[in-house]
Design goal:
Oligomer: single chain
Helix content: 55-70%
Distance between the termini: 58 Å
Strand content: 5-15%
Radius of gyration: 19 Å
Shape: globular
Number of domains: 1
Number of strands: 4
Structural class: alpha+beta
Order of helices and strands: HHHHHHEEHHEE
Length: 241
């Protein structure tokens, strides 16, 4: 009886955890949609927005069952957004956006979503996120060497530099794998550039000269918990991929 009760409690805990995760994911998706609604209407009109909203919802419902669950990962939060981006990108292309235009619209959606938080909270969130990543990255790399990561999870080399700075080389990326599988490879490397956007908004330092999506051997990322990062997409992304 005790074992049965324990199993039931464990199952209930897992179900609650999944439910909460699903609610958070749904909230993030809805916030991004609602915050970008006025921009889409202004740029393209009401009919475009309606078709984008309905099309994105339909594509996301189709995509989600095809997205593997990678379990707990230091990249779990990043992974949440992958099916969103794919659904949005594919819908924008189907509505006549060029790939470059779709990139710009995804940047707009993410900036408006992030700016839901006041600037000071964004900076706190940025430092907390990078600090948490730094503490967990070595464990992620250890699981990688032990062969216990999900095949879709990111593979990295992690190098702590000092209390404020660390580097990671991304050797395999879930976004590359998912977009290849789901016919959305065109959204990369545009989505990769948002690392500069988020670092800019969150007051983190960030530099990178290579990405897997650009055909390089890795994504060579350097982060600073406290720093500065220029967004400026109008300058292009030749030397800072």
């Amino acid at each position: 009886m005790t074992n049965t009760n324990g199993m039931k409690q464990g199952l209930a805990h897992t179900q609650v955890h999944v439910l909460l995760e699903n609610r958070m994911n749904k909230l993030l998706y809805q916030v991004a949609m609602r915050r970008s609604r006025s921009c889409y209407k202004q740029r393209y009109g009401q009919d475009f927005w309606t078709r984008f909203r309905v099309g994105s919802n339909d594509r996301l419902a189709e995509i989600l069952p095809k997205v593997p669950d990678i379990g707990k990962s230091v990249f779990s939060f990043n992974y949440i957004f992958a099916p969103f981006y794919i659904a949005w990108y594919q819908t924008l292309i189907s509505l006549g956006n060029t790939p470059g235009e779709a990139d710009e619209n995804l940047w707009m959606m993410n900036e408006r979503m992030a700016r839901t938080l006041p600037a000071f909270l964004l900076k706190i969130a940025g430092r907390l996120y990078l600090g948490s990543f730094s503490r967990k990255a070595a464990g992620h790399e250890a699981r990688q060497k032990a062969g216990t990561l999900h095949p879709y999870d990111w593979k990295i080399t992690y190098r702590p530099m000092d209390a404020n700075t660390y580097e990671i080389d991304i050797l395999e990326c879930a976004y590359v794998k998912l977009t290849n599988d789901l016919g959305a490879r065109g959204m990369l490397p545009g989505v990769c550039r948002m690392d500069y956007l988020f670092s800019h908004l969150m007051g983190n330092g960030f530099t990178r000269t290579k990405t897997l999506a650009d055909g390089d051997d890795c994504c060579n990322c350097r982060y600073q918990l406290k720093g500065a990062c220029e967004w400026a997409p109008e300058k292009g992304f030749t030397d800072r991929k």
